Amino acid sequence: MSSIQVIAGSMLGSSEYVAEAAADVLETAGHDVQLHLKPVFDELPVEGQIWLICTSTSGTGELPDNIKTFAENVDDTNKDLSTLKFAIIGLGDSSYVDSYCHGALIMETLLLSKNSQQIVDKFLIDARETDSEAEDKAEDWVQENIGKF
């Protein structure tokens, strides 16, 4: 099975709940899963890894505070990230049309610019829904795509 690093970018906790729910599905499927609620780039393995990034959007289309430094370190790294595989779950508020799930787009663009391999199209969840619905949607999406992990 795969080694998967589940990385949460969250301001108010919704993305953390989604990350935990996704991690549970992956663990149940037999994957080796580590959950990172305060991710530190230099502490995360890259070679032979899959990163599942669950992030919300804050402010006017920015990354949450707990993942900003992580993203900056990814951007600044000279490490070869071409062997890294990734998937993204984004949370946002669809009433903010110009910045809806922009945090997920930032991470997707960043990892693709580092030649990382996206294993499935990003999944976007409207965070105006209750946390349990967002978690259920994430669990269903991971289950539907379990073979790609």
How would you describe this structure to a colleague?
This protein is an alpha/beta fold. The protein has a single domain, classed as Rossmann fold (3-Layer(aba) Sandwich), CATH 3.40.50. 36% of the residues lie in helices and 22% in strands. The chain contains four helices and six strands; from the N terminus they run βαββαβαββα. The chain has helices at residues 14-28, 65-76, 102-113, 131-144, and strands spanning 3-9, 32-36, 49-55, 85-92, 117-118, 123-126. Strands 1, 2, 3, 4, 5 and 6 form a six-stranded parallel sheet that branches. β1 (3-9), α1 and β2 (32-36) form a beta-alpha-beta unit. α1 (14-28) packs parallel to α4 (131-144). The chain starts with a strand and ends in a 5-residue tail after the last helix. The mean pLDDT is 95.
Summarize the structure.
The protein is an alpha/beta fold and 149 residues long.
Strands, helices and their partners?
Layout: E1 3-9, H1 14-28, E2 32-36, E3 49-55, H2 65-76, E4 85-92, H3 102-113, E5 117-118, E6 123-126, H4 131-144
Parallel strand pairs: 1-2, 1-3, 3-4, 4-5, 4-6
Helix pairs in contact: 1-4
